[in-house]
Amino acid sequence: MPKQVDGEQRRADIADAVLRLAARDGLPAVSLRAVAAESGLNIGSVRHYFDGQRDLMRFAMRSTIDRVTARLERRRESLRPFAELTRDEAASQLTDFLAELLPLDAPRRAEATVLVEFLIAARVDTDLADLAHEALRGTLTLARRIIDAMTRDALLPPGAADLEAERLAALLDGLTFRCALDPAATPPQACRDVLRAHLASLPRP
């Protein structure tokens, strides 16, 4: 009997090969032939699951966004309500939570590096523009929800939400970029320290 192939798992495996290639060699190195070699498949198998390189790239970018989102959702379930926390406790909890977005270990560094590559490519590639917009807006949306929750629980003064959400999103984007592209200059602990210092310095009510 022929071996049954899980199509979704095969697509996920191929997307992982794209991420490894892009993290190691850059996005220009990603071709159907290179992905086939990286995933241990023949090129016909890759073409069976993806219409072409554009389809493959979109799926890989979608997968990267989704896995980061899923990791944040899992962490969110264990967060304590801000109403139960002091300012310092809230800053520590948020540092641990938001660190999931930062390239602080090898898997997250690979994700962040590839996401940076995709975002830069999307500047001139309209096929990726909507996903790039989603990724960038996602960081701001997350920052806004956090700041709004802190304001509701009297950890931040009223009227500061818009500015503080923009500041937090910009810090997360900047740390991601710096830590992904030059991890030696901005090591993981430095990223955490900068994030923790920012959260602790938010205006008090």
Structural notes for this entry:
The protein has 205 residues and is mostly helical. It has a domain at 59-200: Tetracycline Repressor, domain 2, CATH 1.10.357. 72% of the residues lie in helices and 0% in strands. The chain has 9 helices and no strands. It has helices spanning 7-25, 32-39, 43-49, 53-76, 87-98, 106-122, 126-152, 161-181, 188-200. The mean pLDDT is 90.
Q: What integer value in Å does the Rg equal?
A: 19 Å
Question: What separation lies between the terminal Cα atoms?
Answer: 69 Å
Uncertain regions: pLDDT < 50 for 5+ in a row? none
| Gross morphology | elongated
The CATH homologous superfamily name of the domain at 59-200 equals Tetracycline Repressor, domain 2
Strand count, sense and closure of the main sheet? none
Q: Strand share of the residues?
A: under 5%
Q: What's the total count of β strands?
A: 0
Give the helix/strand layout.
Layout: H1 7-25, H2 32-39, H3 43-49, H4 53-76, H5 87-98, H6 106-122, H7 126-152, H8 161-181, H9 188-200
Outline of this structure?
This protein has about 200 residues and is mainly α. It has a domain at about 60-200: Orthogonal Bundle (Tetracycline Repressor, domain 2). It has helices at about 5-25, 30-40, 45-50, 55-75, 85-100, 105-120, 125-150, 160-180, 190-200.
